[in-house]
Design the sequence.
């Protein structure tokens, strides 16, 4: 798929932008702070309803210069060409209110847009995928799971809501210092609900891990010239609670044997419920949910060593890049995709300048085959020859960021 038209109103540094895009590579060039990332962020936002940069939705609405009127909201509109008929996606971000969406000019829920425009973004922030806390990797898996099956967005939201409510119940039980019979029976109701939602989320994540696995190995091989093997494994807090041994990451059969039973949603839900029952006293003592999808981890290994804590800086970069490229390959090969065209738009935000020649070459080689690649760079020389294509220059003026050929 590719984006053929993009229009922005009051999104970040843009006042108004109307842009026609083509398949193949397109580069956005300009010095720091001109609006390059803002532009690709808008496209990615339409695809996931979240930003690859930290920040709240309120930061997405243009802040007008003092003395000029402050816009009430931002609008992102894009036409996506895929399958037989293009889709027109529109999202209105209104400060302090729920977002509004339109799909093919009819009112829709924002969630209805999910899964239609697929994007994979690789940006310097992605080093966090390897280095930071497990929540970053859970989000990585959950975002991919939603892209593959948009209905999962509802399960994810439901799970997070139940998790928060159960946590607040545990906190009040802790504050009360004595758990009453009624508190315990309320807790059991939450156990069942949380277990059901968490089991669905876990099964979806394991599906992603298993589809992604061969691509991670393949892409890491391509970006690192094959010196080490990259491996991923889903580590469920449920298994740790049950006292299971962690499989050797290099033993593919053992890794699968640990993951596979967790794909059985009713069975996993029942096991989670049992685990929660066993943990009640400790959970009340700590005032926190101690087992479930929110405590799981996507572990990353180079050969048999955990990437976190062992891998060099360069290896961490290669692994982060491999995770994004693997996502791209996995989605591209997803035969059940909406409109039969699963190939995502590849967005490479400011990455070539920080890669060495070998990795730059490997990334450019993969990206050169993509149906559409949008890349940003500070100077023309940062764009690899294999990705020579259309170029736009992004500059910022009094009236907002501008994009010119
Ligand atoms: N809501 C907003 N309203 C107005 N300006 C904003 C808003 N959010 C961000 N900006 C401005 O946009 C600029 C950053 O734009 P962006 O991140 O796209 O730059 P860039 O061209 O990618 O630069 P770099 O090369 O440094 O990555 C900053 O100057 C910031 O002040
Ligand atoms: Mg930028």
Sequence:
């Amino acid at each position: 798929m590719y984006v053929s038209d993009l229009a922005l109103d009051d999104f970040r540094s843009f006042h108004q932008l109307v842009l026609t895009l083509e398949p193949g590579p397109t580069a956005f060039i300009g010095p720091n702070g001109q609006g390059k990332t803002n532009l690709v962020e808008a496209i990615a936002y339409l695809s996931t309803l979240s930003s690859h940069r930290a920040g709240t939705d309120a930061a997405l609405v243009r802040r007008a210069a003092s003395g000029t009127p402050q816009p009430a909201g931002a609008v992102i509109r894009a036409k996506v060409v895929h399958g037989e008929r293009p889709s027109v996606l529109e999202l209105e971000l209104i400060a302090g209110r729920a977002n509004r969406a339109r799909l093919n000019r009819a009112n829709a829920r924002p969630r209805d847009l999910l899964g239609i425009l697929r994007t994979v973004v690789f940006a310097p922030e992605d080093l966090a995928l390897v280095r930071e806390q497990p929540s970053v990797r859970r989000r990585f898996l959950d975002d991919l799971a939603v892209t593959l099956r948009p209905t999962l967005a509802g399960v994810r939201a439901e799970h997070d809501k139940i998790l928060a409510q159960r946590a607040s119940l545990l906190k009040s039980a802790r504050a009360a210092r004595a758990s009453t019979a009624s508190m315990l029976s309320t807790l059991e109701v939450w156990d069942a609900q949380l277990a059901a939602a968490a089991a669905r989320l876990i099964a979806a994540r394991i599906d992603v891990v298993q589809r992604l696995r061969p691509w991670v190995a393949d892409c890491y091989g391509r970006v690192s010239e094959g010196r080490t093997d990259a491996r991923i494994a889903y580590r469920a807090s449920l298994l740790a609670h049950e006292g299971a041994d962690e499989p050797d990451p290099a033993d593919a059969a053992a890794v699968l044997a640990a993951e596979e039973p967790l794909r059985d949603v009713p069975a996993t839900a029942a096991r989670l419920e049992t685990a929660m029952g066993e943990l009640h006293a400790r959970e009340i003592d700590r005032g926190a949910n101690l087992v479930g999808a929110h405590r799981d981890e996507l572990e990353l290994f180079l050969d048999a060593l955990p990437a976190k804590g062992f891998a060099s800086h360069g290896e961490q970069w290669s692994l982060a890049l491999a995770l994004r490229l693997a996502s791209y390959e996995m989605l591209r090969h997803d035969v059940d995709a909406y409109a039969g065209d699963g190939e995502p738009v590849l967005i490479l935000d400011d990455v070539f300048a920080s890669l060495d020649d070998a990795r730059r070459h490997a990334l450019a080689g993969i990206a050169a085959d993509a149906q559409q690649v949008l890349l940003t760079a500070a100077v023309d020389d940062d764009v690899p020859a294999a990705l020579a294509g259309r170029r736009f220059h992004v500059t910022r003026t009094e009236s907002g960021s501008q994009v010119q050929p």
Summary: The radius of gyration is 23 Å. The mean pLDDT is 93. DSSP finds eleven helices and 15 strands in the chain. The domain at 1-118+343-405 is CATH 3.40.50.300 (Rossmann fold).
